[in-house]
Amino acid sequence: MPILVAPSVLSADFLNLGKGIEMINRSEADLLHLDVMDGVFVPNISIGFPAVRQFTQISAKPVDAHLMTVEPQKFITQFRDFGVTKLTVHYEACTHLHRTVAEIRKAGMSPGVALNPHTPVELLIDIIEDVDMVTIMSVNPGFGGQRFIPHSLDKVRRLRQIIHSRGLNTQIEIDGGVTLENARQIADSGADILVAGNAVFSAENPIEAISIIKNL
Ligand code: DX5
Ligand code: ZN
After folding, report:
1. Which residues contact 99 (CB under 8 A, 6 or more apart)?
2. Domain range holding 33?
3. Are 66 and 90 a contacting pair, CB within 8 Å?
């Protein structure tokens, strides 16, 4: 299976975000990863609705929005109206995850659920059939450029096993600390989509960095 790459604009130059997105448009990236943080669920604030709307407008790649917010169910229709394709909410932020996932699908988007590093993948056994993607956080969410937590590989393998044993085709995304050096090992452990922020935007040639990860 080819590796899918989702560059995260969190690590882009915020004074030149349009250029960063155009670079992603011209690259071999499969998705554009947008990190939305509310300063409550995570100790950081990133971008809000005006930015999500404009980035989605100029993105030639489907937008993969990762909501690191409390009460994400409040904003589903806004993200749909902006043109977001994949909407991922955190397991830890949703009291009624089943309802939220159903609402995302009903709104016409592809639902995903993200797990913090301490949340076992086994907690998903009663929701896995309802989501299209699981995002394993391989750092504590909130910031780009952190170090990959090695135990995440074990979580990816266990989740791959659950998906395989049920005969599902749920995608596994890994988010945080992906580098040109560890990307192959992460893909080999069973991840389909690699989010890459720092690895892309701190590279001398970001288009080439995306291509290297994609074609490992
Ligand atoms: C972290 C975000 C990530 C982040 C990844 O909270 O969810 O998407 O941008 O950045 P890197 O690849 O630099 O760890
Ligand atoms: Zn993310």
Report:
1. 73
2. 4-214
3. no
pLDDT, one tens digit per residue, over 60-75 is 999 999 999 999 999 9
Place of tokens 């659950």: 162
CA-nearest of 24, 67, 11 to 213 is 24
Number of structural domains, the chain?
1
17, 31, 35, 88, best to mutate for ligand 1 pocket (most atoms within 8 Å of CB): 35
Q: What is the CATH number of the domain that holds 29?
A: 3.20.20.70
Task: Encode pLDDT of 73-101 as tens digits.
Answer: 999 999 999 999 999 999 999 999 999 99
Which residue bears the tokens 């992906």? 178
Active-site residue flag, 175: yes
Q: Ligand 1 centroid vs 95 CA: distance in angstroms?
A: 24
35 carries an active-site annotation: yes
